[in-house]
């Protein structure tokens, strides 16, 4: 089953179900509770999204999903289902609750982005080992070390990126039916990563979700890149100890009506000559459709806006503009896609508040993208549609290899894993000489949007 289905229920039952689910979802966010079922009354059996159902059983409700409880037959997946933690629990719950509240293709991201004080305290106090059970792989850093320093930002961020990777991979496996290849790698100079890649699936031609945690000393080239961004770096004996970690993903679907999506959230720390540390966060999420769909664009941007608005009302407009500027292919005079949000060097108002903002953004990656995937899952397409997709992928490759800051940093860092850095490239792409779509076509409409970015919310 690959379409979004809504059932008709009477208004009273609908209201009761909505009130019940939102009440319990708020309980999840505030208590950190990660177990199912949720208790509820008077709610009929409703199908919200392919593979996600809410079943009423007397005084209890069970959420069933092939990506969580419905796939409880195997070790890692079962543990992930029975111990939905942090991002996975809030994100999955938000996706379901939203479909109750709004009979449309898309849900609001409110619960996916809400981080209460109680949830933060639970995250810090929660058992590291228990939280790791739902990951795609053990963390890069030894679990014992994470336990010892679980209050430090480096630990909190590593747990967040691991949870984000697991939540997104589980959601993609659910819709595709395939499995990610989980590839752990080590960096001789310090650290390593976990690359999760699925190729030639039913839905995704190439899907990659990477986590990396690396440390050591910055090279002069990498330091120059930092200084070009206004960083004042004072090393000792020419050395600049650093630690960098993040989660990044690029998804290239087969169907040209399903957009490519990219997200990246990262944390950087540098120790200076006197022992003081500079730190900052960066990241963002952006959408690259082959054909423009205004409803998709609104849903995607609105989900990100709601996450930003919970922290600062100026974040979304500022970071949306930054995204349009950053993902710009200067030699083509067009943006890579329809944008989203992008920010870098975020070191205010405080480390805790900056982390909470990044956490909210990371928890939107499933609800801002998966409804769009399900919506277009069975859309028909022609050879001409595929040809245009290949041309647009060529533009994607051009940006990543010529302009992308993360690719440049990775290639300039000794011991970087080239396979993981270039994971963002599609399996196939096309370059046609002097290609220009005919006026009045959907392809021409897409190109107009890329040459003149729009406000979608």
Automatic annotation (TrEMBL):
A cellular-component GO term for this protein: cytoplasm
Catalytic activity annotation: coproporphyrinogen III + O2 + 2 H(+) = protoporphyrinogen IX + 2 CO2 + 2 H2O
EC number: 1.3.3.3
One GO BP annotation of this record: protoporphyrinogen IX biosynthetic process
PROSITE patterns membership: COPROGEN_OXIDASE (PS01021)
Pathway: Porphyrin-containing compound metabolism; protoporphyrin-IX biosynthesis; protoporphyrinogen-IX from coproporphyrinogen-III (O2 route): step 1/1
UniProt keyword Glycoprotein, yes or no: no
Key words of the record: Heme biosynthesis, Membrane, Oxidoreductase, Porphyrin biosynthesis, Transmembrane, Transmembrane helix
Organism the protein comes from: Sander lucioperca
Family (UniProt): Belongs to the aerobic coproporphyrinogen-III oxidase family.
Transmembrane segments: 81-101
Domain of life: Eukaryota
Molecular function via GO: coproporphyrinogen oxidase activity
InterPro entries on file: Coprogen_oxidase_aer, Coprogen_oxidase_aer_sf, Coprogen_oxidase_CS
Subunit organization: Homodimer.
Keyword Transmembrane tagged: yes
Alphabetical list of Gene3D superfamilies matching this protein: Coproporphyrinogen III oxidase, aerobic
The protein's name in its UniProt record: Oxygen-dependent coproporphyrinogen-III oxidase, mitochondrial
């Amino acid at each position: 089953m690959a379409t979004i289905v809504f059932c008709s229920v009477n208004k009273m039952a609908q209201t009761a179900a909505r009130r019940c689910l939102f009440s319990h979802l708020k309980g999840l966010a505030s208590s950190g509770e990660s177990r199912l079922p949720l208790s509820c009354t008077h709610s009929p059996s409703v199908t919200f999204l392919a593979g996600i159902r809410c079943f009423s059983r007397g005084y209890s409700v069970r959420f069933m999903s092939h990506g969580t409880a419905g796939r409880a037959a195997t070790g890692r997946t079962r543990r992930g289902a029975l111990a939905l933690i942090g991002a996975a629990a809030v994100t999955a719950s938000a996706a379901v609750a939203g479909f109750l509240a709004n009979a449309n293709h898309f849900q609001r991201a409110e619960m996916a982005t809400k981080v209460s004080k109680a949830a933060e305290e639970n995250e810090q106090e929660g058992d590291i080992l228990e939280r790791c059970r739902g990951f795609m792989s053990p963390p890069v850093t030894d679990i014992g070390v994470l336990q010892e320093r679980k209050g430090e930002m480096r630990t909190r961020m590593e747990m967040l990126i691991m949870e984000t990777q697991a939540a997104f991979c589980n959601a993609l496996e659910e819709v595709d039916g395939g499995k990610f290849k989980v590839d752990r790698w080590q960096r001789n100079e310090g650290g390593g990563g976990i690359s999760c890649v699925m190729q030639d699936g039913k839905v995704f031609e190439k899907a990659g979700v990477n986590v990396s945690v690396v440390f050591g000393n910055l090279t002069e080239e990498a330091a120059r890149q930092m200084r070009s961004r206004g960083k004042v770096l004072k090393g000792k004996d020419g050395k600049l100890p650093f630690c960098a970690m993040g989660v990044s993903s690029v998804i290239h679907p087969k169907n040209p009506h399903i957009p490519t999506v990219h997200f990246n959230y990262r944390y950087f720390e540098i120790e200076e000559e006197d022992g003081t540390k500079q730190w900052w966060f960066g990241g963002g999420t952006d959408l690259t459709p082959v054909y423009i769909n205004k409803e998709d664009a609104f849903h995607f941007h609105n989900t990100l806006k709601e996450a930003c608005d919970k922290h600062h009302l100026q974040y979304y407009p500022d970071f949306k503009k930054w995204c349009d500027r950053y993902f710009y292919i200067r030699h083509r005079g067009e943006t890579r896609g329809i944008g989203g949000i992008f920010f870098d060097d975020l070191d205010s108002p405080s480390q805790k508040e900056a982390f909470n903002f990044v956490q909210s953004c990371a928890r939107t990656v499933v609800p801002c993208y998966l409804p769009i995937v399900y919506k277009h899952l069975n859309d028909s397409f022609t050879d001409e549609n595929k040809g245009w997709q290949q041309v647009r992928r060529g533009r994607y490759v051009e940006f990543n290899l010529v302009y992308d800051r993360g690719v440049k940093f990775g290639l300039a860092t000794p011991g970087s894993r080239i396979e993981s850095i270039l994971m963002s490239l599609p399996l196939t792409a096309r370059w046609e000489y002097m290609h220009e779509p005919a006026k009045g076509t959907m392809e021409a409409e897409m190109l107009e949007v890329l040459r003149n970015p729009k406000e979608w919310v």
